[in-house]
Design goal:
The protein is of the alpha/beta class and 393 residues long. It is built from 14 helices and 13 strands. A hairpin with a 4-residue loop joins strand 5 and strand 6. 45% of the residues are buried. Pyridoxal-5'-phosphate binds next to helix 4.
Length: 393
């Protein structure tokens, strides 16, 4: 049977990580990876997570199934972290999911059950996995304007024009902060203008929040969601705890579906639970139990915010460091977009040929689009990165 299958090439990012790992040259830099790294180049378990895990091991009495929607304490704590009371609780269907990806996948299942022929509009560009994940689930996807490559900034007018052209009732997928891959986010006034068009055109917002706390802070990063919550009857929100809790491999995320009223909430909740039952039946619990424990305990929560702040501040410092080093090494080129971007990712802004030369001649690895992970920069390697970039410009 399996002889009919063809061998697929390795995933671009995983292929890049392997290539970098096997490169014997020194120095070498991996700017392709999709995880946070500290100044030592490691992705450590957060201290607060270690403490919560220990408490969980000491106190957990059972590992019996919980249910397709996951634990209520996690869902409620994540709902409050996301919406901060901006929507009535009895309008929100909620599920713990295996990561943000699981959340997006369950959302796709619910959308398809509600309206099979709907289109989901995604930013151009968007996270590389949005298209295979949502498209693979069976959704129609179309792009809306977002990023202006010439100015390396948000193309607000283009975006608003695109949104105005979307048929009523279609779904718009928005990155609430730390847009992946550009790092360019609308500011609050721009989000309000975007929300105005969403309300006016009766579009259904589907918000992906995978980096809450990585751009400005936990509240500011949820601005779009809270702004929309008071203005639209329905909305989907996919949240991820992979980055802000460093729980990547434990697979922790949440899906929230805001509905018109509590009756609609009950219907959507039953359908979403049933979608889960047909895919993975129940979400993994360990990471979600850790997150619930941290969010519900004042001391652990405060310590988590401190560690989250450290990660965010390191990203800001590394952006600035790379920007300053490039200004020194390549004074004729403008890299100011690096410091305007937010979160882990942004485009360096070089061509695929230059990306290839950076890899071959200088052991500096990044994906072809020149998207870089700022967390791969350290005080030790920034000089090598800047000199290498200047050499290929
Ligand atoms: C924009 C965006 N959405 C969702 C995710 C999903 O993350 P995970 O499934 O690891 O929680 C990511 C991860 O990189 C992302 O960048």
């Amino acid at each position: 049977m399996f002889e009919s299958l063809e061998l697929l090439p390795p995933d671009a990012i995983i292929g890049l990580i392997t290539e970098c790992r096997n490169d014997p040259r020194d120095p070498k830099v991996d700017l392709g990876i999709g995880v946070y790294r500290n100044a030592a180049g490691e992705t450590p378990v957060l201290d607060v997570v270690k403490r919560a895990e220990q408490r969980l091991i000491d106190t957990q009495a059972s590992k019996a199934y919980i249910g397709s929607a996951g634990p209520a304490d996690f869902n409620e704590a994540m709902r409050d972290l996301t919406f901060a009371g901006t929507v009535a609780n009895d309008r929100v269907a909620m599920l713990q999911t295996p990561g943000g990806s699981g959340s997006l996948r369950v959302a796709a299942g619910v959308i398809l059950r509600a309206r099979e022929d709907t289109t989901v509009w995604v930013s151009s560009p968007t996270w590389a996995n949005h298209v295979p994940l949502l498209g693979g689930a069976g959704l129609n996807l179309k792009p809306y304007a977002y990023y202006d490559e010439t100015t390396k900034a948000l193309d607000l007018d283009g975006m608003l024009d695109s949104l105005r052209g979307i048929p009523k009732g279609d779904i718009v997928l928005l990155h609430t902060c730390c847009h992946n891959p550009t790092g360019i986010d609308p500011d609050e006034a721009q989000w309000r203008a975007i929300a105005d068009v969403i309300v006016e055109r009766e579009l259904l917002p589907f918000v992906d929040i995978a980096y809450q706390g990585f751009a400005t802070d936990l509240d500011a990063d949820a601005f779009l969601i809270r702004e929309l919550a008071g203005r639209v009857p329905e909305m989907l929100v996919a949240n991820s705890c992979s980055k802000n809790f460093g729980l990547y491999r434990d697979r922790v995320g949440a899906l929230f579906v805001v509905t018109a009223d509590s009756n609609a909430r009950d219907v959507v909740q039953s359908q979403a639970n049933n979608v889960v039952r047909t895919i993975y039946s129940m979400p993994p619990d360990h990471g979600a139990a850790v997150v619930a424990m941290i969010l519900d305990d004042d001391k652990l929560r405060a310590d988590w915010i401190e560690e989250l702040t450290e990660m965010r501040e390191r990203l800001c410092e590394m952006r600035q460091l790379l920007h300053d080093a490039l200004r020194e090494e390549a004074p004729d080129h403008d890299f100011s977009h690096l410091v305007r971007a937010k979160g882990m990712f942004c485009f360096l802004g070089v061509s695929p040929e230059q990306v290839s030369r950076l890899k071959k001649e200088h052991s500096v690895y990044m994906v072809d689009s020149s998207r870089i992970n700022i967390a791969g920069i350290t005080a030790d390697n920034v000089g090598h990165i800047a000199r290498s970039v200047a050499a290929v410009l």
